[in-house]
Amino acid sequence: MSSAERVSAALTLGERFPTAWAAFKTHTPILFVGGLIRACVSGGGGGGGNLGDLANLAQTDAEAAPAQLQLEAGFPEWDAALAGVGVGVLAAIIGLVFCVGIAVWLFRSWYIVGWYRTLAVSARGGTPEFGGLFSGGDRFVSQLGISLLSGLVGMGMLLFWFLFAGLAWGGASLAGLPEEIGMAAGAVALLVALPGVIYVALGLQLGELAVAIDGDKAFDGLVRGWELARGARFSMVLWWGGVALFQFGSYIAGICVLCIGVLFTMPVAYAICDHALVDAYLRMRDDVAGGDAADLGPPDPLPVGASPWTAGS
Predict the structure, then answer these.
(1) What is the Cα–Cα distance from 85 to 17, expressed in whole angstroms?
(2) Which of 73, 170, 269, 312 is the most interior residue, by most CB within 10 Å?
(3) pLDDT tier for residue 285 given thresholds of 50, 70 and 90
């Protein structure tokens, strides 16, 4: 079985999700608590977090747009509010939000290692321990590094995407075409470049797992994740599309239960989705005992803090 075939076989929602649900029922306390922390510090879903970060960024910009338009229009109520608050207070608030964001990012980079390790123990048939959730200190720097590298690649990808659309729009304007034609050209350019954006984003989704579970350094994890995605991106689109629908449905279900239901549904959703992803990742690799991990039964339990690829050697 080739690498692409093994990855595609591992990323099967119909097989991984029932296994994840069974594991959640067996280890409910630790997976619920771990999923709750994961939900609080997550920028995305189902592992990786890059696609979710981009969606959150777009949502934030969209929500901020009306307020920005009101400020530019010079609405008197906004002017009075700003004059009453003062520039110094606004700067302090912005600084506080920035510091909190950095703190959450640092905590996530540390926590996600222990979280994935804990899920790996469960996926390999072991009994996870609460201490494993907070065992990521030894790979914190590498996880921080791959987060930075993935973020830089993601920002470069977005810059190229919008630059491509801007060139199309600007070219139409320079050619003397109507503004509507220029806007249409920009929109078409965005759609044309979208497959490339998705292609790059999918290649960034497995790097965190390589660092947390395999113990790769930041750049090596990025490369390993990219290589695993080679030839299997269609299966990855189906996987993350299904994960997104499952998490969205969980969120709606929580909202319907007096809104506070999300405190239950989202931790469960993150635990199931991440467990399924870790299980799939383990099956993408050759088992330490030899042979194809996708064709083997449940592997031996993995000690907390050990690498799945060295535990049996």
Answers:
(1) 50
(2) 269
(3) confident
> Read out DSSP for the chain?
--HHHHHHHH--HHHHHHHHHHHHHHTHHHHHHHHHHHHHH-SSSSSS-HHHHHHHHHHHHHHHHHHHHHHHHT-HHHHHHHHHH-HHHHHHHHHHHHHHHHHHHHHHHHHHHHHHHHHHHHHTT----GGGGG-GGGGHHHHHHHHHHHHHHHHHHHHHHHHHHHHHHHHHHHTT--HHHHHHHHHHHHHHHHHHHHHHHHHTSSHHHHHHHH---HHHHHHHHHHHHTT-HHHHHHHHHHHHHHHHHHHHHHHHTTTTTHHHHHHHHHHHHHHHHHHHHHHHSB-TTSSBGGGS-PPPPPPTT--TTTTT-
The whole model's pTM is what? 0.77
Query: Is the confidence at residue 288, as pLDDT, over 90?
Result: no
